[in-house]
Structures are given as C-alpha cells and as structure tokens.
Amino acid sequence: MKTVFFDIDTQVDFLLPAGALYAPGAEKIIPTVAKLNHYAGKHGLPVISTMDAHSENDPEFRAWPHHCVVDTMGQQKPASTLLEKRLVVPNAPWALNLASIDQILLEKQTFSPFSNQNLTRLLDHFVADRYLVYGVVTEVCVKFAAFGLLETGKRVEIVTDAVCALNDETGAKTLADFTASGGHLTQAGMIYA
Fold first, then answer.
1. Which residues neighbour 100 within 8 Å (Cβ) at sequence distance 6 or greater?
2. How far apart are CA 80 and CA 96, in angstroms?
3. CA atoms within 13 A of residue 103's CA, in its CB half-sphere
4. Which pLDDT value is given to residue 192?
5. What's the structural domain count of the chain?
6. What's the average pLDDT block by block, 10 residues per block, for the chain (193 residues)?
C-alpha cells in the first residue's frame, strides 16, 4: 500500500511556548513527528509538510495573531522534523520536479493545504492508497487536511499521538467527526510495526 505522510504545520509558532500561536503541550509531539518523518524518508515514502507562509499584512491576521510570517523564526520547522532532501513548493505555478526529494515543504496561506494550487498535482504524482496525517492543530489545519484528503476516496488516518489540539474538547470532537466520516485513527507505534 503506497502511503504519503502529511506533517501539518509543525512550525515554531505553533509548537513552542514562545510561539505566536502556541498550542499548549504541542512541543511534546515533536519527537514523534520527527520519528514519523524520518521513518518515511528511510523507507522511500514521501512526506508533505505543510507550512503556513504568511505575509506581514496577511488577511488571516484579522482573525488570528501574526504568526508564521515568511522568513521569521516562527515560520521555521524544528530541525529534527526536516529531512535532508527537501524542497519548498510555493503557492504559485511550479514545475513538478521531485527527483531525489524526500520531503516537500508545501506553503499555504489558509487553513487548508488544498489552497496550494500544486497539491492536487502532487497527489496525482504520488498515486497513494493511504494518507497518514499528523501535526497541529487538530481542530483547525489537521482537520482541513484530513477531511480534504478523505474526499480523494483513499484511506486517511490521523496519528493520534502526533497531533495536538488548542482545546481538548474540540479536538476530540474533530476526531469523532473524522471517524464518523470514514476516517481512521492510528498511533505512531502501529506505523513502525
């Protein structure tokens, strides 16, 4: 079964206490995210790591504090989650050239990774049977990624020990809604087995 790993928005502004939109406890998932990404890389499985890439005056800042502004520390991913052979894919026309690439850093300006005009082409290129989704935050960007991927008709699994919610109650509701919609829940240990 061909699997694509989706590492959602694991960026400093969301993961660390000093971050602009810190999800309490998110730093605890960093080792698991790193292990998942490196497992995929070692086994030749693609990793698509979504990344907020906002301008200084991004419209999203009307509703949310400034976060993940391009070229700031807050926009970066922890080094442990990065694979050596990686490529940034902007939300702009882009020539599909993935030779020797293990990790795609997919830039986006909204909650959904499908807002990046290149994602559908990437999914067509990889021809996956299964998508594993993890990252932050469960009830926002992880939700948009997981539910969007369900629309492909492929198996979609959220890795429950590699996600973090802003609010435990809304995070749990998101997971319940996801499984009710045909999604599956798993844990990282099940992937390595």
1. 85
2. 26
3. 23
4. 75
5. 1
6. 95 96 96 98 97 86 85 95 96 85 95 95 95 97 98 98 96 98 97 78
DSSP state of 78: P
Determine the Cα–Cα distance for residues 95 and 90; give it in Å rounded to an integer: 11
CATH of residue 164: 3.40.50.850
Structure tokens belonging to residue 173: 């509701």
Query: ∠ CA(101), CA(140), CA(91), 5° rounding?
Result: 40
Res 176: pLDDT: 98
Count the neighbouring beta carbons within 10 Å of the beta carbon of residue 83.
19
User: Distance between CA atoms of 171 and 153, rounded to whole angstroms?
Assistant: 23
Cβ neighbours, 10 Å, residue 80? 13
Q: How far apart are CA 108 and CA 67, in angstroms?
A: 13
What pLDDT sits at residue 146? 98
The pTM of this model reads 0.96
Task: Look up the domain containing 159 and give its range.
Answer: 3-192
